[in-house]
UniProtKB/TrEMBL annotation:
It holds the Pfam family CPT_N. It catalyses: (R)-carnitine + hexadecanoyl-CoA = O-hexadecanoyl-(R)-carnitine + CoA. One of its GO terms (molecular function) is carnitine O-palmitoyltransferase activity. The keyword Lipid metabolism applies. This is carnitine O-palmitoyltransferase. It comes from Solea senegalensis (Senegalese sole). It is a multi-pass membrane protein. Pathway: Lipid metabolism; fatty acid beta-oxidation.
Amino acid sequence: MAEAHQAVAFQFTVTPEGIDLQLSHQALTEIYLSGVRSWKKRIIRLKNSVVTGVYPASPSSWLFVVIAILATMYTRSDPSMGLIAKIQEHLPVSKSMSTQCQVVVSAVLFSTMLWLLLIFTMRLCLKQLLSYHRWMFEQHGKMSNTTKVWVALVRIFSGRKPLLYSYQGSLPNLPVPAVKDTVKRYLESVRPLMDDDKYELMTKLATEFESSLGKRLQWYLKLKALWASNYVSDWWEEYVYLRGRSPIMVNSNYYGMDLYVTPTPIQAARAGNSIHAFFLHRRKLNKEEIKPWLLRSAVPCCSYQFERMFDTCRIPGAQTDSVQHWQDSDYIAIYHRGRYFRLRVYQAGRLLSPREIEYQIQRILDDPSPPSAGEAKLGALTAGDRIPWAKARQTYFSSGINKRSLDCIERAAFFVTLDDEEQGILGDDPQASLDRYAKSLLHGKCYDRWFDKSFSVVYYKNGKNGINAEHSWADAPVLAHLWEYTLATDCFQLGYNAEGHCKGDVDASLPKPQKLNWEIPPECEEQITQSLAVAQTLADDVDFHVLSFQDFGKGRIKRCRVSPDALIQTALQLAYYRNRKTFCLTYEASMTRLFREGRTETVRSCTNESCAFVRALEGGEAAEVCRRLFRSASEKHQQLYRMAMTGAGIDRHLFCLYVVSKYLGVESPFLKEVLAEPWRLSTSQTPVQQAELFDIVNHPEYISCGGGFGPVADDGYGVSYYILGENMINFHISCKHSCPDTDAHKFGAEIRKALHDLIQMLSPSPREATFTAQSRPEAKKDL
C-alpha cells in the first residue's frame, strides 16, 4: 500500500494535545506539477483553437490588417467608406475617451470585422475549391489546365503550416446523390450476380421505389444533410457498430502486426520503448503537430477521427453501446496472468523515460500476487454478447471497488496485455506460426484483452508485439498512422542498448504499479463463464491464413501500366470464381475523408466487366482478348473507386434511406432486399501512409506484416491486403471452419495463382500464344 500512502498529500492525528498535522512534501509537489502540466495543456488547446479558428488566415494577420487600416487613415483616406465614423458614433464609452482615442478604437473594431470577413471569405472559397473533384478522374500524370489552376488556388487559399484540424471548417459536406442515380448504379452492380428473373424482379422493385417512397425518404435525407456535418457518419457509427448486439471480438475489432524483425527479445524493454512512443504521439496529437493528410500534396482529408484515439472506451448498453472519451489520462491499464494493474507513466509532471517504463513493466512481470476471485477471465465480458455484458456492468460494476477498478480500465490512455506466449515467425513452419500470430492478435484467449478499449497493445514473451482495435471510433487507416509512428520511433529513434534493454537511467524511487482490486460475486463469475463460452466458440471457428506474397509487388504491376489495387481486386474475383465456381457480392472499403467527418464507402468490385474477363480467361479466350477485357475491368474498378471517394457511391446512400424509412415506420421491399444481401467477399486495403519513417529499400525487414479482420459472412471470406514497398503484398485471409465451402489456405493458394496468371498475361512474353492452353488444366487440377 506504499503507493496509496504516497498519494495522500496530508495526514492528521487527533491527540489530547490537539491535532497533529503532517504534510507530505512529495505528494504536494506531485499535485503542483500535475496542475502545471494540466494548465499547460489548456493553454496549448486554447492557442490551437485560436489558430484553427482563424485558418486559413493566421492570428498575426489581424495585426497586419489593423496596421494597414491605421496607416491608410494616417494619410487622411477613409478605407471604411464612413463605417469607422459610424462605429465611433455608437461607442458606449465615447464620452470618456479623447477624439483621437475614439478614432483608433473604431479603426481597430473595423479592422477586426474586416479581418473576420476576409477569413470567412477565404474559408468559403477554399470550401468551394475543395468541392471540385474532376482532378481525380483525370489520367494519372496528365493534368488538365483547369486542374493546374485549381491546385494553385487551393495552395493559395490553404495558408501556411496548417495544424491537424485546420482544414475541418473548410471541408465540404458529403453530397446526397440523386435517388435515380443511386438506383441505376445499384442495378448495374447486381446484374452479374442475378439471373434474368431475379434481376427483372429487382428492377421492378427499384422502379417502384424510385417513383414513390424514394422521393419522400430523399426529402428527409436532404433536410438532414443541410443540418448535419455529414448525413452518414453518425448513423453509420450508431446502427452499424454501436447497436450490434453480437460480440465485437472477431465480428468488428481488427488487428495490426509487428515488424518482420524483432528489435529486442526482452518483453519489458519492447513495451518500454513503444509505450513511450505512444505517449509521444499523443503529445503531438494534443498539440496538433501531426500534419493533415493531403492527397497529391494539396487536397486535405478530414482528421476528426483522430480526436478519440486515446482515452476512449466503448461502453455497453442494453439497446445500444456508446463511445466515451475523457481528457488525457496519465496512466495505462495492464493485464498480466489474470491480474489488472494501473501504471502511471507521468512522474513529477514529466513522461517516464523508456528505461523507467521498462523497469515498471518488469515489476509487474515479477509480481507473484495471485488474481482475485473472478478477476483472471473478467475480460471475457467484453468478448461475449453485448446485452449480458451491459446487464453485468450495471449490476456488479456500478458502485464500490468494482466501479473504481472498472473506471480505471475504461479511462486509461489505452490497454496493454503482457502475454506469456511467444508469437511471430517461429520454428520450422514459419507460415503456420504467422497464422497463429494473426489469430492471437484477433482474439487472444478471449479474456486477456479488453476489446472495448479504443485499442489494446499486446506484448509477447519473446519481444513481439501487436495491436487490436475497436472499430466504432475510427477506421483502420487512422490507427495505422499511429502504429507506423510507434514502430518507427521504437526502432529508429529510441533504440536499445547492446543487452537489448531500453536506453537511459532509472529513478528507483518510482512507486510500484498499482494492482486493481475486485469483489466479484459468484453470479458475476457465472456470467463471465457464459460470455467466455460464447467468445471461445466464435474464436475456435475462425480459420485464418496470412499469405506473404513476395514473387512481385506494385513495382512490376505499375510497369504493366495497371493500378495495383485494380489488379489485386481482379485477382480476388478470379480466385473466388475458381474456388466457388460463381461470383459474389464483393465489398471493398473506400474512404470519404475528402468530406467533413467522412468515413468509408463501399466499392462493389464485382462488376459486369470483371466477370466478363474472368469468364474469358477461364474459357480459354486468346490472350489479346483477355488483356482487352482486363483493361476494361481495371478502368471500371478505378472509376467506381473514384466515384465512391467523391460521394457518388451506392451503399451509404441506400443505408441512410433505409434508416429514414425505419424512423418513419414505412416498409420498402426494395431497401429490404438490398440490405439483406450478404457480402461473401469483404476486402480492404490499408495503405502505408508515412513511408518517410521507414527505409524499405535498405531495411526491408523493418516493415509491418500488415493487419486483418474476421469474416463478415458466415459462408464468406474477409481479405485485408497490405502493399509493402515495390516487391511484397501481404494478404490476411479469414473465414469460418463451420462453413464446408470455405478454406482460408485454399483461397490463399488461389489468390497466389491468380496473381501469377494475371501478371503473366499482362507481361510481354514469347509464350503468350500458349498461355491460356497451359493455364486451364492447372486451374482444374488445383480445384
